[in-house]
Amino acid sequence: MKKISLAFEHIFSEDDWFNKVLVGGLYLLLAPLLVGMIMIMGFQIELTCKVIRHETGMPLWRNAAMLWKNGLNASIVSLWYAAIVVGMIMMAQIPVVSATSAVILVIAHLCLNPVIVNRYAVTRSMIACANPLTIFIFIKQRPLEYLLTIVTTTTLIGIAVLFGWMWIVVGWPMLIFFTLIVQTVSFATL
Fold first, then answer.
1. Which end of the chain, N or C, is less packed with Cβ atoms under 10 Å?
2. pLDDT > 80? residue 162
3. Helix/strand/coil (H/E/C) assignment for every residue in the chain
4. How confident is the model over 70-90, as a mean pLDDT?
5. Tell me, what's the pLDDT at 9?
6. CA-CA distance, 47 to 56, in Å (whole number)?
């Protein structure tokens, strides 16, 4: 829980946090068009770099070219892992377009994406991140911390999605983006 409180502390360390979360929520709405996913991953990468350098605050959205470049590279790696998971689904003879496949892909995304963001922020190499050994070594070096962080942050994301009354008050895209930021800061401190 200390990591989560540190993540909240990091987010609220600047006066402009609400505007950054608002913009992130708007990009989350564009996630199905891939534009949002790319920008959010770029933001997560830059946020990870700031946390690793012990800087406070969040990155600026106006650095769009940098966010786009880093987010595009990490998104390609994320899609690579999604293709691997789809291949495994097909080998298991599970229909690709099914609720079971969707659940498997969501779980894979929730477990792998934070590590992809972290590893890309550290290495700045698509090739290093696309190597499953890189992901496995990261997890193997800190399995309990990884598991606790995944469970805690995934629970927060689930709560953000499930609490319908909060959607009206804050807006679900902002709430989900906020939990993604908490997850990013938590993984940056692993």
1. N
2. no
3. CHHHHHHHHHHCCCCCHHHHHHHHHHHHHCHHHCHHHHHHHHHHHHHHHHHHCCCCCCCCCCCHHHHHHHHHHHHHHHHHHHHHHHHHHHHCCCCCCCHHHHHHHHHHHHHHHHHHHHHHHHHCCHHHHHCHHHHHHHHHHCHHHHHHHHHHHHHHHHHHHHCHHHHHHCCHHHHHHHHHHHHHHHHHCC
4. 96
5. 83
6. 9
